[in-house]
Amino acid sequence: MKYLKIVTLLLAISLVGCTSEEDTSMDIRISINGQVLFEDGDDFNGDVDGNFTGNGGSGSKTFLWRNNLRTADYNADITSTSSGTFNMEVKDSNGNVVLNRSLRGGTEPDSFSGVTASGSPGIWQVTITLTSFKGDGSFSLSEGD
């Protein structure tokens, strides 16, 4: 009987622990060139065409991209009628930030484009972050200069 009480107490504690935190990372989906990103660190060569969707959740994914030039051309576009943000941060092969831009849902502008700051060629790191984002969108990167 004593063991049954202990097991019941442990089960109750674990259930309370599981329900006190909500995992909203499943409410976002980011894909690159048609491949859904499940883990950070995937790498890509050539042009990058990305898509994302969010159901109000938050999360981010980081991937690696080979850029043989010193700059990159970029653009992003969102469709969202509610608040929430999309952010794209790009770091060059030395870890220096060459782009950090955001779009907020439900407001204008709903797109951005341009050329990154100059950086070091090589393997660049790209982080896409959705925060309380409900909607969808796309982004792209290609070698600049």
How many strands appear in the DSSP assignment?
Answer: 9
How many DSSP H or I helices?
1
Sheet/helix structural class: mainly beta
Which radius of gyration do the C-alpha atoms yield? 20 Å
Shape: globular
Mean pLDDT score, rounded?
81
* Element-by-element helix/strand order: HEEEEEEEEE
β-sheet strand percentage: over 45%
Distance between the termini: 75 Å
The main β sheet shows up as:
9 strands, mixed
Helix content: 10-25%
Give the low-confidence spans: 3-25
Note down, in words, how this protein is organized:
By secondary structure, this protein is mostly beta strands. 12% of the residues lie in helices and 55% in strands. It contains one helix and nine strands. Strands 1, 2, 3, 4, 5, 6, 7, 8 and 9 form a nine-stranded mixed β-sheet that branches. The longest helix is centred in the N-terminal third of the chain and has 18 residues, at 2-19. The chain is globular, with a radius of gyration of 20 Å. The N and C termini lie far apart (75 Å). The model is unreliable at 3-25 (pLDDT under 50).
